[in-house]
């Protein structure tokens, strides 16, 4: 079992490396194509191989850009099979964190919650892989307040690290509606950049494909790189009006890192993206949207 897992991991890393090489070569050819179309000078670093790149442009098929990448391999069964989500906490959780984990279990259809106990991260990931779990969610706290969420996609990654803020649990929301177990419709707003689409895929593939008559709606709305989570059910009062009822919980997510690996490979996995709040000179720059 360990040999097979190591072999699959090596094959995945090899496919990812090949994809990166193809993407770099395609970017160089695109620069030459744009220079020729706009009648500009070819960039200095490409002048020696410009003729070879121009010759290879004749064999490129239009409309096939970005069809194959390692993200397709990570989520190749998305939409075909329902995701299997496992939710757990950090060690020695408080009663409030346990309650928040139970409420997260109601958010994801078919999710299971596991008591952390003294299990190590490696043992958790191995157990999830052996039982066909597609995503492992780990919630962290600080003095009883949930402050962190880790979403690790199995078996090869990626792993996204989020900061939690402004958490309001179900029992703190007035006029609370009944939690539905239907598969929800998703509203993803404000994820227009390349990184935003990556984060959108990580979040939306936690949910199965809903039925058309589902009356449950979950919203991930990005504004200034803070992702607001809202959970509602709706009913039609007449042919024109719809009444929304919030179900909860509600919270904000702030992405600070994506690793190309699973949770137990934290020391060895490559970092795909990391937020550097103290090294960016443009403090008002946003990453999840192209606006």
Give a description of the structure.
With 291 residues, this protein is of the alpha+beta class. Helix content is 29%, strand content 27%. It contains 6 helices and 11 strands. It is globular. The model has no long low-confidence stretch (mean pLDDT 85).
Describe how the helices and strands are arranged.
Blueprint: H1 2-37, H2 50-57, H3 70-74, E1 85-89, H4 95-107, E2 112-113, H5 121-130, E3 135-142, E4 145-153, E5 159-168, E6 185-189, H6 194-204, E7 216-223, E8 226-236, E9 242-246, E10 250-260, E11 270-274
Parallel strand pairs: 1-2, 1-3, 6-7
Antiparallel strand pairs: 3-4, 4-5, 5-10, 7-8, 8-9, 8-10, 10-11
Helix pairs in contact: 1-2
List keywords for this structure.
single chain, 291 residues, alpha+beta, eleven-stranded mixed beta sheet, 6 helices, 11 strands, 29% helix, globular
Report mean pLDDT, rounded to a whole number.
Answer: 85
Proportion in β-strands: 25-35%
Show unreliable segments.
Answer: none
The percent of residues in helical segments reads 25-40%
**Biggest β-sheet, characterized?**
11 strands, mixed
Label the overall shape. Answer: globular
- The SS-based structural class is alpha+beta
Ends apart, CA distance between termini: 47 Å
Element string (H = helix, E = strand): HHHEHEHEEEEHEEEEE
Number of strands: 11
User: Count of helices?
Assistant: 6
The whole-angstrom Rg is 22 Å
Subunit structure: Part of the small subunit (SSU) processome, composed of more than 70 proteins and the RNA chaperone small nucleolar RNA (snoRNA) U3. Component of a heterotrimeric complex containing IMP3, IMP4 and MPHOSPH10. Interacts with MPHOSPH10.
GO biological process, one term: rRNA processing
GO molecular function: rRNA primary transcript binding; snoRNA binding
InterPro entries: Brix, IMP4/RPF1
